[in-house]
Amino acid sequence: MTASPWLALPEGRPDPALARRLRAAHEALVTSSAGPPRQVRSVVWESWRRSLGNGVDPDGVAPPVDLLDDDLEAYRAAHPLAPVLPVIRRLLVEDAEDDRMIVAVTDAAGRMLWVEGDPRLRSRAAGMNFVEGARWAEDVAGTNAPGTALALDHAVQFYGGEHYRRPVQSWSCSAAPVHSPVTGELLGAIDVTGGDHVASPQMLTLVRATAAAVEAELRWLHRADLETRPAPPPAAARPAPRLEVLGRDRARLVLPSGPVQLSLRHSELLLLLAEAAAAGEGRTAEQLAAECHRGDTAGVTVRAELSRLRRLVGAHLIGSRPYRLLGRLDTDLDRVRRLLDLGAVADALERYPGAVLPRSTAPGVAAARERLAHRLRRAVLTGRRPELLLRYSRLPEARADVAVWQACREVLPPGSARQAAVAAHLGRLRRGDLAT
């Protein structure tokens, strides 16, 4: 059986030969931007590359401390994970000193809110600012279990030299993200840090089980709160977010707070999730990778993009495990489809300014684009209404469509100026000398 890519030491034992290979690979990357060697896990290599791209210095200063004293206390007291600390302490912290490990709980930005466990290890870790209030997000602290678990929204562990920053390479760590069971929002991460034994498969299983127990406790607390809370007055219905992809190189997401212009990759991912939602489904990272990229692309790449997309549009819109829409999202693509279902071809054509994300080469987007274009073309050709055929012929996708221009010529009055213009265009098409 193939070992999980998220496991650092599948056999559960330290590997001096692996440690030497990791040091060599890390040195090659930071000094010459070498390509990925086979002995480095893809999740490690991709994180190293992101750390390098974010300007993280492998020998630089320790991560910054964002919160101190009263500010830290106030922020922790209000954080959603504060009520479930007893669960984490019961499952991890009570045995942490005997097990020679540190237990840390972060917020969604990677800031350490609680750091507990073996006091001797905590004293050592303080030398690299692994302390309460410090920010260990991957983009500032490099490859590390809590920061990378948050960046990829997935449980992960790192063994020694798999860390990007050299001061951290004497430690191993396992971490898992924690989500709101109500909204799917990423709340933070639970991390265990210590010696080589922390990179064992059993430790990652324990951390993931603790995260699951925390989410179950949060769900129970939410239900208990609902039972005792008075019913709120009915709220005014808010308009659903709207995704516009027709005739646009990049999608525009219209939220109640205002429009957001998405990158092409985020446009593709959100459209693919909307298409899955229309079928009542979600998608794994691997499924989205296949629909979004030609060739063999790792799911970790898609997880990183989705993590950035969730931060941009809000975790209330996109859930994980599997990735899915958490609420209604209207798309102009689906609006045209509904009109075609009703036989309202004129209205559908009026609301179709062009193809679905015409610059996208993502296989899933291309399939949605082709399905809608085929349906609209067939409806216009079948109806044979002159005004609709002429309007359709002005679309970029119809410019070289011989069947469309032939139908236009057949339905227009013989000898009319429009028919003459259509016939001239059709002639150029058939001679192959139409300028592109």
- By CATH, the architecture of the largest domain is named 2-Layer Sandwich
- Beta content comes to 5-15%
Number of strand elements: 11
Give the uncertain stretches in residue-range form: none
Number of domains: 3
Task: Please name the CATH topology of the largest domain.
Answer: Beta-Lactamase
Instruction: From the alpha carbons, calculate the radius of gyration and give it in angstroms.
Output: 27 Å
Please, what is the average pLDDT?
88
CATH class of the largest domain: Alpha Beta
How would you explain this protein's 3D organization?
The chain has helices at residues 16-32, 42-53, 69-78, 85-91, 119-126, 138-141, 145-152, 201-228, 264-278, 285-292, 299-313, 332-341, 345-350, 363-383, 386-393, 402-411, 417-431; strands at residues 101-107, 112-117, 156-158, 172-179, 186-194, 242-244, 252-255, 258-261, 318-319, 324-325, 330-331. The protein is α+β, with helices and mostly antiparallel strands and 436 residues long. The strands form three sheets. It has a five-stranded antiparallel beta sheet, sandwiched between helices. A four-stranded mixed beta sheet has the order 8-7-6-11. Strand 4 and strand 5 form a beta hairpin. Helix 15 (386-393) runs antiparallel to helix 16 (402-411) and helix 16 runs antiparallel to helix 17 (417-431). The mean pLDDT is 88.
